[in-house]
Every structure is written in structure tokens, then in C-alpha cells.
């Protein structure tokens, strides 16, 4: 019987790294994930990317570059297959959804500090942040609901202002949010980076519209202010810049959703509060 491409990739990975007992864990639109055993004792993860997943390949190379500091450790990579640390804890979204938002924001700041630590190794090729925002600038304002077009215009203006004001350019995870940070015996660790190059404050932007299932936090001006305070104080990034990127990213996220013909109700609920927080910062 002929094997499927993923079965072939899995078989080759098990042989290459002397692994056993593969268990399917998840299939996303970009990859398949398996739990495997090493030496019959320790668990590890295999992530097999689907064809032509350029962003996932770029992110995996950045994950390897982190060297396990603030992120899951990549043991080895071969083609579209990543052999990496198995993280079996819950996500940082769990305590936040349970009412521990300050604690979650502090933990998130600690993870980001580790990810942003200067490293001697040359980083892999990354996507410029300006290029990542091209979808925002290219979107026809008429794609937005009539009553929200002013929000789109304001967010675009803020993004352009941020790009016009020089900042440090460092490797960015590009998708930091609570459910991309998992518990482990080494502490909280990030997974699934996108691999971006740009302003360090941008890596905090996605925090403000997450986690899923906690929209009451993302639309609460007091929680927005508290998150901005904690992140700015702990990372020493300008508070106004953090909030500016948060508003710009919420609009970018809406444009991505519109391109896929999905609802932007959540982004529209968050964006006025983020713009107001930015104005007051």
C-alpha cells in the first residue's frame, strides 16, 4: 500500500532520529504534529510542515535560533520536518481565562524578555515588519463596515507613524499570544513563531486582542491599561509605542480575516478601546 506524503515523512523521521511510538496530536492548516518517544523514555514532538509553508519554515528556523531560551527547543531539522521538545503543559491562556490576567501578563513579559535577548549567532532570514503590514495598507477601506472605516483609517495612520519613527530592529516571534506560550518543567515557553524583523514593541501587540475566550479582558479599558503598564515597566519599551502597535495590529488582524471572508466582530470590539488607550498614553 502506498504511503501518503505525511506517512512517508513520519517514517523517515522515526528512522533518522531513532524515535518510536508516534501518536498524532494535531493537524493544522500548516502542519501535522506527532508525539514520539526517545529511547523509550522521553517524549518529543515531530512537526511536519505541509508543502510550500514558507512562513512556517521561516518561523521554525527562528525557533531553532532561540536555542531553547524562552521557547521550545529544536533538536534538529530536516527539510520540512522539525524534531523538537515536547511541551505537555497547558497554555498561558488558561490562567488568564481563569481571572489571573496580571500574572499572565507578567509571565508573558518574562518570555518576551528571553526571546529578545541578544544572541551572538546570526539570525535566519526574516520577514521585514513593514512587509508584514502590507495587507493593512493594501486593503480597500470599502471592505470594512461603513461605521468602522474611521477606525481603519486611524489604525493605518498610527502604523505609518510608527514605521516613520526609527526603532531597534530585532528578530521578532511575530505571533506572541497567550495560547502560543506553554507550560513546561523549564517554565513558560513560546512556540510557533512567524519569523519577523522589526520593532521589539510589536511583539506585544497581539497580546491585547487575546486570549481567545476572554474578550471581556480585551475590551476592558482598565485591563488594557494594566497590560500596557506591566509590559512597559518590565521590558522598558515605550508604553505609547506598545499601544500603537496593539491598535495597528488589531486592524491588520481584521484585514487578514476580511481577506478570508471571516468575521471581524472581535477586532471591531477591541479597536476603539485600543485607539483610545493610545490617545491617552
Distance between the terminal alpha carbons, to the nearest Å? Answer: 63 Å
**How are helices and strands ordered from N to C?**
HEEEHEEHHEHHHEEEEHHHH
**How many beta-strand segments?**
10
- How many alpha or pi helices? 11
Q: Summarize the main sheet.
A: 5 strands, antiparallel
Find the CATH topology of the largest domain. Answer: Aminoglycoside 3'-phosphotransferase, Chain: A, domain 2
Helix content estimate: 40-55%
| Poorly predicted sequence stretches spanning 5 or more consecutive residues | none
Structural class: alpha+beta
Organism: Devosia oryziradicis
InterPro entries: Kinase-like_dom_sf, NH2Glyco/OHUrea_AB-resist_kin
Protein name: Phosphotransferase
Question: Can you walk me through this structure?
Answer:
The protein is α+β, with helices and mostly antiparallel strands and 281 residues long. It folds into 2 domains: 5-85, Phosphorylase Kinase, domain 1 (2-Layer Sandwich), CATH 3.30.200; 93-280, Aminoglycoside phosphotransferase (APH), C-terminal lobe (Aminoglycoside 3'-phosphotransferase, Chain: A, domain 2, Alpha-Beta Complex), CATH 3.90.1200.10. Helices cover 45% and strands 18% of the residues. It has 11 helices and 10 strands. It has helices at 5-16, 54-66, 93-97, 101-115, 129-132, 134-138, 149-164, 215-218, 221-235, 239-259, 265-280, and strands at residues 19-27, 31-38, 42-49, 74-78, 81-85, 127-128, 170-172, 181-184, 187-190, 196-198. The protein has a 5-stranded antiparallel beta sheet, sandwiched between helices. A 3-stranded mixed beta sheet has the order 6-10-7. It is globular. It starts with a helix and ends with a helix. The mean pLDDT is 96. This is Phosphotransferase.
Amino acid at each position: 500500500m502506498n504511503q501518503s506524503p505525511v506517512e512517508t515523512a513520519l517514517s523517515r523521521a522515526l528512522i533518522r532520529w531513532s524515535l518510536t511510538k508516534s501518536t498524532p496530536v494535531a493537524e493544522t492548516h500548516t502542519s501535522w504534529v506527532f508525539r514520539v518517544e526517545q529511547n523509550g523514555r522521553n517524549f518529543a514532538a515531530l512537526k511536519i510542515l505541509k508543502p510550500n509553508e514558507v512562513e512556517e519554515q521561516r518561523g521554525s528556523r527562528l525557533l531553532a535560533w532561540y536555542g531553547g531560551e524562552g521557547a521550545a527547543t529544536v533538536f534538529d531539522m530536516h527539510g520540512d520536518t522539525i524534531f523538537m521538545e515536547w511541551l505537555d503543559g497547558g497554555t498561558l491562556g488558561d490562567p488568564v481565562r481563569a481571572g489571573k490576567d496580571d500574572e499572565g501578563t507578567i509571565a508573558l513579559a518574562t518570555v518576551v524578555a528571553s526571546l529578545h535577548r541578544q544572541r551572538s549567532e546570526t539570525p535566519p532570514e526574516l520577514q521585514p515588519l513593514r512587509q508584514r503590514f502590507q495587507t493593512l495598507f493594501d486593503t480597500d477601506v470599502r471592505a470594512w463596515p461603513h461605521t468602522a472605516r474611521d477606525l481603519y483609517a486611524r489604525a493605518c495612520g498610527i502604523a505609518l507613524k510608527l514605521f516613520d519613527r526609527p526603532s531597534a530592529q530585532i528578530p521578532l516571534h511575530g505571533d506572541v499570544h497567550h495560547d502560543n506560550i506553554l507550560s513546561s518543567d523549564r517554565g513558560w515557553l513560546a512556540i510557533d513563531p512567524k519569523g519577523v524583523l522589526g520593532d521589539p514593541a510589536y511583539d506585544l501587540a497581539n497580546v491585547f486582542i487575546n486570549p481567545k475566550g476572554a474578550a471581556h479582558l480585551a475590551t476592558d479599558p482598565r485591563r488594557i491599561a494594566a497590560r500596557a503598564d506591566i509590559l512597559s515597566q518590565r521590558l522598558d519599551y515605550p508604553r505609547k509605542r506598545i499601544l500603537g502597535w496593539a491598535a495597528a495590529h488589531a486592524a491588520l488582524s481584521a484585514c487578514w480575516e476580511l481577506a478570508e471572508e471571516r468575521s471581524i466582530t472581535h477586532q471591531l470590539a477591541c479597536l476603539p478601546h485600543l485607539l483610545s488607550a493610545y490617545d491617552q498614553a
